[in-house]
Structures are given as C-alpha cells and as structure tokens.
Amino acid sequence: MAGNFFLVGLMGAGKTTVGRALARRAGKTFYDSDHEIEARTGVRVATIFEIEGEERFRDRETSVIGDLVKLNDIVLATGGGAVLRQENRQLLRRHGTVIYLRAPIDDLLARTLHDKNRPLLQTADPRAKLEALFNERDPLYREVADLVIDTSQQNVNQLIIDLEHALADHLNGRAG
Ligand SMILES: Nc1ncnc2c1ncn2[C@@H]1O[C@H](COP(=O)(O)OP(=O)(O)O)[C@@H](O)[C@H]1O
Ligand SMILES: O=C(O)C1=C[C@@H](OP(=O)(O)O)[C@@H](O)[C@H](O)C1
Ligand SMILES: [Mg+2]
After folding, report:
1. Could you tell me which residues are beta bridge partners of residue 74?
2. What CATH class is the domain 5-169?
3. Closest ligand by atom to 121 CA
4. Where are the beta strands (DSSP E) in 14-134?
5. 11 close to 108: Cβ distance less than 8 angstroms
6. Residue 152 has what DSSP assignment?
7. Closest Cα partner for 6 from 149, 161, 170, 145?
8. Of 11, 37, 75, 158, which is most buried by a Cβ count within 10 Å?
9. For 14-67, how does the pLDDT look when each residue is reduced to its tens digit (9 = 90+)?
10. What average pLDDT does range 158-168 have in this prediction?
11. What percentage of the chain has pLDDT greater than the value 90?
C-alpha cells in the first residue's frame, strides 16, 4: 500500500504499538513523535512537561511532525494531543492517510494505569481526565481522520489485519 499512514487517538489507544506492527507488515519505516522528541532532547516526555510545560512540548511536537510528514512510506504514531493544533491537523491531512484508533475509556485507563511517562494522567482521577480529553478531542480526531478503527476487544494482531483491510478498501475507493 502506497503512502504514509498517521495514527491519532487518545493515550492508550495503541498508536505506538499498532503503528510499529503495521509498519513492519507494510514494509514502511516506523516513527513515533514522542520518541523523536525524546531522541532530539535526550530526556523523557514527562521531564519536558515538568521543566518546560505543555506548550513548549507542543512546539517541539509540531516541529517534529512537520519534519516527519515530509518523509515517504512511513507510519507515524503521533502523541494523543497532536490534533490540538490546526497546523498539525493540516500537516497530517496533507501528507498521508490518517487513522483514528478509538477505545472505551475503561480500556484506555487499564492500558495507561501503570505508565508514569504520561504526565497528563498523573492525577488523582485519571478516569475523569481521560473523559475530559475525550470530550475535547474526539471531534478533532474525527475531523482529521480518513478512517476510524475501534480497538476494544481486539488483540493487536487481529487489529492489524482488520486495519490493513480497512486501509486497502479506503485507498481503492479513493483511487477508483
Ligand atoms: N488493542 C489492544 N489491546 C490490548 N492492549 C493494547 C492494545 N493496543 C495497545 N495495547 C497496550 O496498551 C498500552 C498502551 O499502548 P500504546 O501503544 O503505548 O498507546 P498510545 O501510543 O496510543 O498511547 C501498551 O501496553 C500496549 O501494549
Ligand atoms: O494526550 C496527550 O496530550 C499526550 C499523549 C502522549 O502520547 P501517547 O498518546 O502516545 O500516550 C504524549 O505525547 C504526551 O504525554 C501528551
Ligand atoms: Mg504513544
């Protein structure tokens, strides 16, 4: 399948995990915007939030996304907040096929509970935070996405197969 694939969705949706597996099967190069930011700065995402704050992290994220979308034949897992900036949404729409990975809050919570590198969820009530983020961002994920894929009740291997079929249908539809 030709072109770039960009994954969006909330924390715990599986963007990093699914993106890496999809890239391997599709013979594309995998990137993750958070990993790229960590490689460029030499520190973890949580440390950037702590020292510089969220807005400066968002500047770094836009810069990394702007560089990566220019590449060809990549799969890019974005961070959950990448869609907040219109500039990022335009970059993603222009340079590839955007896939929104969607899952119920319960699943997102279970998948992120023990990971300390998601600063936005280090609160007394991570469920309430995820619900608020869902309400704010679901319209933005939908706006930017070519495809919406439900990841609940799905193991990653089955998900990749379903995703490949959905992508092939989408790309064929567009070509025809
Ligand atoms: N479909 C899935 N079913 C069960 N667990 C999943 C699924 N997708 C991802 N995970 C697990 O959830 C956690 C968060 O996944 P990750 O890929 O880091 O999400 P994101 O990058 O969207 O925040 C990881 O431990 C991953 O193994
Ligand atoms: O939703 C967000 O605003 C964020 C999601 C994280 O990425 P994942 O969605 O891969 O966890 C990471 O970019 C940062 O902690 C902020
Ligand atoms: Mg990720």
Report:
1. 29
2. alpha beta
3. 2
4. 29-32, 74-77, 97-102
5. yes
6. T
7. 145
8. 75
9. 999 999 999 999 999 999 999 999 999 999 999 999 999 999 999 999 999 999
10. 95
11. 95
